[in-house]
Amino acid sequence: QAYLSYSNIAALTHLAGKPGWDIARTLDNVKIWTHEEGAVLSFKVEMQVKVPSHVAFSLLSDFRLRQRWDRHFLTCEVLQAVSEEEKIYHVTAPPTTGHKPRDFVILVSQRQPCRPQEPYMVAVRSVTLRAVPPSPKFCRSEILCAGFQIHSNGSSSCTVCYFNQVTAGVMPYLAANLTGSSKSIEDTALECIKFLE
């Protein structure tokens, strides 16, 4: 578990630090970036939020609050509290056209910064839990690497960056999005800002 947790944080740090991010869209408080490497597409959503970074961190690290602003989360329950900084959740997501609803078993690892210039981190990856085998009602999907980095901009504002390395499981939600025919990434980001503020 210690290894999984370490690799979860390390994978998010590595994804965030990759060169070659291309800006796809800019709004007032939201920027959307993409990164392509072989068959893997990653995206980053950068949000300017008028709350202190530690407040954003405490709200974003509890995934049970996610349904309040992210309509891709139908339900979210804690399966196991591994430690104060690690929890395993079961998440269900609504069906996309012609598909069963999806579900995910994810490990969420949270870290506070060790040094002032470092971001708060909430890293997410899929894990396998014997207690929750795939169910015929759902299409079990996988998150390779996702999560939030929260950078302080002073005492009352912060920059929240959401990252997701996209697999085929998440692709149906995003395909329409990145071509610009759907605005769900932008809408979700604006809902997130509204929730945090």
Automatic annotation (TrEMBL):
PROSITE patterns membership: START
Identify the residues that the record assigns to the START domain, covering every copy.
Answer: 18-190
> Which GO molecular function, any one, fits this protein according to its record?
lipid binding
Q: Which residues form a coiled coil?
A: none
Q: Which InterPro entries match?
A: START-like_dom_sf, START_lipid-bd_dom, START_lipid_transfer
SUPFAM superfamilies xref list: Bet v1-like
**GO cellular component terms?**
cytoplasm
Q: Name one Pfam family in it.
A: START
- List the SMART domains: START
Protein name per the record? ACO12 thioesterase
Q: What gene, per UniProt, encodes this protein?
A: Acot12_1
